[in-house]
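forwarding from the other thread:

> can someone predict this with zinc ion?

sure thing
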Amino acid sequence: MLAVYDKTIIRGGRVVDPASGIDAVCDLLIENGRIAAIGENLPCEEANVIDAAGKVVAPGFIDMHCHLRDPGQEYKEDLVSGTKSAARGGFTGVCCMPNTRPVNDNASVTRYIIEKAQLRGSGVHVYPVGAISKGLEGTEMAEIGRMKQAGIIAISDDGKPVKNSNLLRLAMQYADYFGVFIMSHSEDKNLVGDGVMNEGYMSTKLGLPGITRAAEEVMIARDILVAEAEGKRIHLCHVSTRGGVQLVREAKKRGVRVTAETAPHYIGATDEWVAGYDSNCRVNPPLREEEDRLACIAGLCDGTLDAIATDHAPHHQDEKRVEFHIAASGISGFETAFCVSYTELVKKGYMSLSQLIEKMSAAPAKLLGVEGGSLAVGSAADVVVLDPERELTVDAEAFASKGHNTPFHGKTYSGAVCMTMVGGRVIYEEA
Ligand code: DOR
Ligand code: ZN
Ligand code: ZN
């Protein structure tokens, strides 16, 4: 039987906690699931000792945006495999989008997700996002109040835009009243048309129908203007274009209550990657051009983009191993989020490790209003141990996720996740 310790010490690591401004080599003492002390040479009698010498100790990552596919599409992912995959990626909390079957548009689905995650999950906190509209159909509002009582953290029709601007406006008012917020999938489907990749040089060269950036930007602008008019909060999912970043930047300057995320694939890949028609590069919004990638990085650096979220979207091989234009959209993202982000952002000198950790833990925790994202004494012991300088080659076949769909397979990055702990309990430890 595994020994159960109520006292653990993570010894000798570089503790990086942007929330409390700590970046120093020291020990972390955990008692009864909470951070009890941080300091040098803490006494460790009767404690379980974890040696973190040469490693980085940080608050566990929190993913504001993922798809766990449960209920209904367990052949793609379920709450067991999805939370296991999240733990391997260093995540201690994840928000799962409501485009399940049935849709999470009522309290019983919300309760199912929470209960199954508690009973069968890896230990990662699962925060369900409820639907804005019933069945994600964009016509009738879902049971926001009841879902909130059951435990949703936000509302979204992710996967689909909210076409009806008045429904969006009403949803903002309800969301505010019930203490949740809207996460918008900003996309104008009419402008997307039959597009399957970013519209530009590459789509012309490859002969694939393109998606104009305007399809994203028109809706970002609409979302911002509605939020501004209402004085309400809006969070923009997966911002991928330079124009989108600029719209958010200007809105923030005007004082609009807008926040935004981008995903590792928008800072680590471009439409050039589609050159071999690899359907693992099909994602929505699509991979954009180098200038957009650089704009997303600049947006993260100057605070325009608040957080990095994976948009983990696992699919079955049968839906991916087909021609590009008929392949499902999405990337299985938990297990490459840190190495891709660390390599592209920190190793390439755009930001410090502490800033990256902030974008992946403290910032999302604050936006969501959940515990975590901090190693301050008294906080929940949701911790990740990282080996940022260790190189690894991505092997999608070895993912804990059922979704092996990633454009990063076979590529080498720097940044390993060594251990993930939730409430003082180790939920993932590398072999
Ligand atoms: O690529 C995507 N996949 N984009 C979305 O908005 C939805 C997601 C999914 O659910 O597969
Ligand atoms: Zn989306
Ligand atoms: Zn999504």
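The first helix runs from residue 79 to 88. thats all i got for now
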